[in-house]
Design a protein that fits this description.
Layout lengths: L7 H14 L5 H13 L7 H16 L6 H24 L3 H11 L13 H9 L6 E4 L1 H10 L2 E5 L5 H15 L4 E6 L10 H6 L7 E4 L14 H9 L2 E5 H8 L7 E7 L2 H7 L5 E5 L4
Parallel strand pairs: 1-7, 2-3, 2-5, 3-4, 5-6
Antiparallel strand pairs: 6-7
Length: 288
């Protein structure tokens, strides 16, 4: 999915947000660097690639390799504290796999893009109202069947906090197929609030999956930029679960692999591409 002009406000607002929270020095110089980069923008790239490049400029200017470090830690701890009660709800349901997938998708609401402007109250409302929410596109049954019949799964994570609910889904996946080899993919370097290796280990995903860095600092999974080791895992996986909008943007046109996209369609551009309303819960295999 190529870069759209509607994505430009998100880029600029993200820069301003990071400048605010880090009290960036010499903002005018920072903005000049960003706009110089954007003036030469290649619109054949995906938005996640461009955000990755923009965030790299930010980190260099700030001399800070992880501007969202404290915020990522906060959301990981917050969702870890909620995980036990959520897991109890999943386990008590007649269809625990379905509930685990739904909670993992609802967790995708955690996003630090200022365009979405989510408050903590809104995030908690979505999580607490889970039983009243349902999928607009529901390929959960097909996903469950493929998991039961597969030997290897690559689960591409997304945001901090959200990965605690990914952990609950992976735990349920292992109940569906105890012999399934699961890899959990994370970013190779801090970029906005996307999860890196430290996040995945902090919340205990290594209890159920092998954590693997994709070796890149873009949002999502830009395959040609990832490490050779990661690409081998991707190519050999029987099934891929791709969490979040950035992974959808990067992989929605990839047809050589069985990919299930799990996301909340927060962005109008992505909602339009999928064909759903904003805030829809989506479990989508585009080959179905």
């Amino acid at each position: 999915m190529k870069m759209k002009d509607q994505c430009l406000p998100c880029l600029v607002n993200q820069v301003i947000k990071v400048a605010d929270i880090t009290q960036a020095p010499d903002r005018e110089a920072l903005y000049r660097k960003i706009f110089t980069f954007l003036a030469q923008l290649d619109f054949q790239k995906t938005n996640p690639e461009v955000i990755g490049e923009t965030f790299a400029i930010l980190k260099t200017h700030l001399k800070n390799d992880d501007p969202y470090y404290e915020v990522r830690k906060y959301y990981n701890m917050l969702l870890m504290d909620m995980s036990e009660s959520i897991e109890e709800h999943i386990g008590s349901d007649e269809y625990p796999f379905y509930q685990a997938v739904k909670y993992a998708v609802i967790g995708n609401i955690i996003d630090f893009n200022p365009i979405y402007n989510r408050t903590m109250e809104e995030i908690m409302k979505f999580i607490n109202d889970a039983e009243h929410l349902d999928f607009t596109i529901n390929h959960v049954e097909a996903l469950q069947k493929d998991i039961q019949e597969s030997k290897t799964l690559l689960y591409l994570g997304d945001n901090c906090g959200e990965i605690c609910l990914d952990k609950l889904l992976i735990k349920q996946i292992k109940k569906e197929n105890p012999n399934l080899k699961v890899h959990f993919g994370v970013r190779g370097a801090a970029v906005v609030n996307d999860s890196i290796e430290a996040d995945a280990y902090d919340v205990g995903i290594d209890e159920y999956a092998t954590i693997i860095s994709n070796g890149d600092y873009a949002l999502g999974t830009v395959l040609e930029r990832t490490s050779e080791t990661f690409r081998k895992v991707f190519e050999s996986a029987d099934v891929v679960i791709a969490k979040g909008q950035a992974n959808y943007e990067c992989l929605s046109e990839y047809e050589k692999k069985k990919i299930y996209f799990l996301l909340m369609a927060k962005c109008q551009v992505i909602a339009n591409d999928i064909g759903v309303a904003t805030n829809s819960l989506v479990c989508l295999n585009k080959n179905m």
